[in-house]
Amino acid sequence: MKYLEFDNHLRSSHAFAVEEYIMKNPKFEDEYFMFWRTKPTLMIGRFQNTIQEINSQFAKDNDIDVVRRNSGGGTVYTDPDCWQFSFITWKNSGQVKDFRDFTKPVIAALQSMGVPAVFHGRNDLHCEGKKFSGNAQFGLKNRFLHHGTILFDTNLENLVRSLNVTDEKIISKGIQSVRERVTNIRPFLTNDLESLEFRNKMIEILKGDMVQIVLSDTDLAEIEKIEKEKFLTWDWNYGNSPKFNITKSNRFDGGKVEVQLDVKNGIIETCSIYGDFFCNGDISVIQDAVVVCKYESSAIKTALQSVNAEEMLYLIKIDELVSCFVD
């Protein structure tokens, strides 16, 4: 196995592109290990419905990236104090890759620093009964990827708020619940370390006698192409969502507005608007305006402005109306 130096990027989109590039490119004949981190990011599982999983407004307001990964599993919140590890290996014909096999060296490294880490359940790592690591896998032809997270000193409040919860009481309970079930590992270290010091120590232990490689400029250009054409696109990050129904409502000075939508692959297919508001015109004009529109606030707002929706609805501002479509 070879160690791929990977500490100059904070974009998960770049990291996922690196993983995919190595898995697909036949010139990479060995097995590889990476240890990396990102800026605040919501990593969406391959088969999840992004729109339903996250608090889009909180993510936008707090500059949190939203990126879908190739592997399955649930949504993961990461930030610069949450480290990631990746193993890219060859598939073994007829064998299922065990999560334990990949996490054993990580557990051993953490234990050597005083963290009482253990494998738990299907794909998690725990410390004194609390989860600090989730793991996911992805297979492609004859290649296999295992990657996981390590909550080192992550902002757990942002972890909760970035998910699709808006009620403050639920958020407060959620934060309390997360703190009861999830833990950062920094408090368990025998000798306290800053985030980068922890990274260096983990690499020192896990790297061992691995040969270190550096990607060429040609490699990086191809990786940036994958990142741009896949992992940074709206279609990949939002559009790969299954069809679902949405009902949202709010009450304003102009009355209550309830919006019911059918959304498929991130595109609005049907729209119905109900409520006790006053409308100066045919409400179907507003409803039809958002059909085939992307289910995101900016696209919806543009569509509503194109038919002068604010002028049609009495005492309801355009931003208020948009809030009935998407948080």
Give the key terms.
327 residues; alpha+beta; BirA Bifunctional Protein, domain 2; Enolase-like, domain 1; eight-stranded mixed sheet; three-stranded mixed sheet; 13 helices; 14 strands; 36% helix; 27% strand; elongated
Plain-language structure description:
- The chain has 327 residues and is α+β, with helices and mostly antiparallel strands.
- It folds into two domains: 2-239, BirA Bifunctional Protein, domain 2; 244-323, 2-Layer Sandwich (Enolase-like, domain 1), CATH 3.30.390.50.
- The chain is 36% helix and 27% strand.
- It has helices at residues 12-24, 50-53, 56-61, 99-112, 156-161, 168-181, 195-207, 217-231, 234-239, 283-290, 297-306, 309-312, 318-323, and strands spanning 2-4, 32-37, 41-44, 65-68, 76-78, 82-90, 117-120, 124-127, 130-140, 143-151, 211-213, 244-252, 255-264, 267-275.
- An eight-stranded mixed sheet has the order 7-8-9-10-6-2-1-11, with helices on both faces. A three-stranded mixed sheet has the order 4-3-5. The protein has a three-stranded antiparallel sheet with strand order 12-13-14.
- Helix 1 crosses helix 8.
- It is elongated and about 75 Å long.
Would you kindly provide a brief summary of this structure?
The protein has 2 domains: 2-239, 2-Layer Sandwich (BirA Bifunctional Protein, domain 2), CATH 3.30.930.10; 244-323, CO dehydrogenase flavoprotein, C-terminal domain (Enolase-like, domain 1, 2-Layer Sandwich), CATH 3.30.390. The radius of gyration is 23 Å and the shape is elongated. The chain has 13 helices and 14 strands.
